[in-house]
Amino acid sequence: MQDLVKEFSLTKKQRKDLQTDAKSVRVVDDVSFQCVPGRVFTLLGPNGAGKTTTLRMIASILKPTQGKVTVAGHDMAREPLAALAKMGFLTGSTGLYDRLSPNEIVGYFANLYHVPASDFKPRRDAMYELLGMNDFANKRFGTLSTGMKQKVSIVRALIHDPEVIVFDEPTSGLDIITASHIIDLIRDLKGKGKTIIFSSHIMAEVELLCDDLAIIHKGKLQFTGSMDDFRANMQTESLAQEFIRIVQAAP
């Protein structure tokens, strides 16, 4: 990700509410970082910092105002289909089809990604087993719990075996058992050499998973580097306290 900028136009009402004459607001401002295969890159930031907007630009859900996103060697602007074929994106608000079963949803997305039949079933079955999904694989998606739905979204995002996976707060609102399954899955993907971008408000998860770290606040990067470097330069006693210190010290 190189020099990413995202601006949103403001309506007259929004300009009045914000007490500004500006016609747009910049929510991501010159953000650059690199994610490495076999490592978990964690993006941290308070609500409204520009974190989710950055992740959505990486996943091509939003188009950058300026800057460049490269996924597995493919420029997202010039080669969007090639880049997206190498990427999986998971967010807590993924919308899927209530009338379909997990098997039907996963099969549908496998077909979209042209997953060979010889790869589909063993890949699906392995993730079902890891996430404990076999008991509800044929139930309607709309009848499932939040945790069950999130598991279906995970398999949907990973069925094409992407090289780069973006997890935007994947355990938000989930029970501790479901969350632990997702943490185990991320560790498994890391062990397979995947490039993982992970966002979370849960510092215990960051402690468990993070290899490299960026902190964003008011659209700007306040820190980027390895977790080892971050720990070596901490001025407080915990990751959470240091995160708060950096955010509060930001201009």
State which percent range the strand residues make up: 15-25%
Binned, the helix content reads 25-40%
> Could you give the order of the helices and strands?
EHEEHEEEHEHHHEHEHEEHH
Principal-axes shape call: globular
Q: Strands of the biggest beta sheet: in what spatial order?
A: 7-8-9-3-10-11
Descriptive notes:
The protein has helices at residues 12-18, 51-58, 80-85, 102-112, 117-131, 146-158, 176-191, 203-209, 227-232, 239-249; strands spanning 2-9, 24-31, 40-44, 66-68, 70-71, 74-75, 87-91, 164-168, 195-199, 212-217, 220-226. β10 and β11 form a beta hairpin. It is of the alpha/beta class and 251 residues long.
Describe this protein with a few key phrases.
251 residues; alpha/beta; globular; 10 helices; three-stranded antiparallel beta sheet; six-stranded mixed beta sheet
Set out the fold topology.
Blueprint: E1 2-9, H1 12-18, E2 24-31, E3 40-44, H2 51-58, E4 66-68, E5 70-71, E6 74-75, H3 80-85, E7 87-91, H4 102-112, H5 117-131, H6 146-158, E8 164-168, H7 176-191, E9 195-199, H8 203-209, E10 212-217, E11 220-226, H9 227-232, H10 239-249
Parallel strand pairs: 3-9, 3-10, 7-8, 8-9
Antiparallel strand pairs: 1-2, 1-4, 5-6, 10-11
What is this entry, summarized?
With 251 residues, the chain is of the alpha/beta class. It is built from ten helices and eleven strands.
